[in-house]
Amino acid sequence: MEKGKEPGSKINNPTWNYTPDLPIKTAPYFNWPPDPKHIIRWLIERWFPITERGLLVCLAIFIWVFAAPALERCKTLEIGWMAEIYFRNFMIMCLVAGGAHLYLYTFSKQQKLLKFDAKDLKKNNSLFSFKNQVWDNMFWSLASGVTVWSMYEIIIMWGFANGYGFMFDFSDNRVWFVALFFLLPFWQAFAFYWIHRALHWPPLYRIAHVVHHRNTNIGPWSGNSMHPIEHVLWLSSVLIHLVIASHPIHVLFFQLSQVISAITNHSGFESIMVRDKNKIAMGDFFHQLHHRYYECNYGSIETHWDKLFGTFHDGTDEGLEITRRRKREMHKRTI
Predict the structure, then answer these.
(1) Strand partners, 269
(2) Residues 90, 67: contact at Cβ < 8 Å?
(3) What angle do CA 277, 121, 197 make, to 5 degrees?
(4) So where are the chain's domains?
(5) How many CA atoms lie within 13 A of 131 on its CB side?
(6) N or C: which end of the chain has fewer CB within 10 A?
(7) pLDDT at 1 > cutoff 50
(8) How far apart are CA 308 and CA 306, in angstroms?
């Protein structure tokens, strides 16, 4: 079968094995004039009937009920409950990233169907720790990612247990409890863009962000493969829960959205196929372009910042030329 012409492929650019329909379209929140119907439809598609966000809400509730230390235990910083959080998060990272990698890469269950980049993940490459991209990504995700992720959860749980922040229950305000699930992704997208732009400041890029950008071709383990400095900065946006009224379930949802969405968005595949149909959305071509070309698409398709600041790459040849022209100008300014 000809490269890029698999059933369901929507190839627009021969430099890729597969692309979604191009040009990439961003969320309609900032379109003018506003189109409420389009905005509502966009939100529904991201929440119903079965989507990653909805599943993460369910997982957050499950963890709080069955796999989180009782708040009373968190009043003092003791190894027992902190270790429970760490090992639970370790297992989540292994199950989700490891499971996706096994399915898509080790066992290659759908070959290269819906895979953006035709190239395989790198081996015998001195750029990576252990000269292997997957082992490198696993090391940074588990050794640094799980540790920092757990550290922030421990800080917030300890804060809630000791009266810091504004913790409330579902019975206190049902409307705000539910609404917060829909509002948190906006804060997450806003914080991600500005933290990510800061990480591309040359000194910070050379010290920290370069570890993540070793991955020009990405896989499930790449999403959380970062230097500890980057993990501390990127995951810090969860601290908003010490400022706004929230519940530990919201904290769990927020952190799961960061960590698990990074895994799925970096999977390298648009979706997992079930009986030759796109069933489970996975990769994000918008961010795949960022890993290939670096100085573009710093945010997500849910924010307007890249369009506003001229760093938007829509996946087309024209978008690529604009990105290359901007990179040439950036290079001139640094000479």
Answers:
(1) 115
(2) no
(3) 90
(4) 46-271
(5) 3
(6) C
(7) no
(8) 5
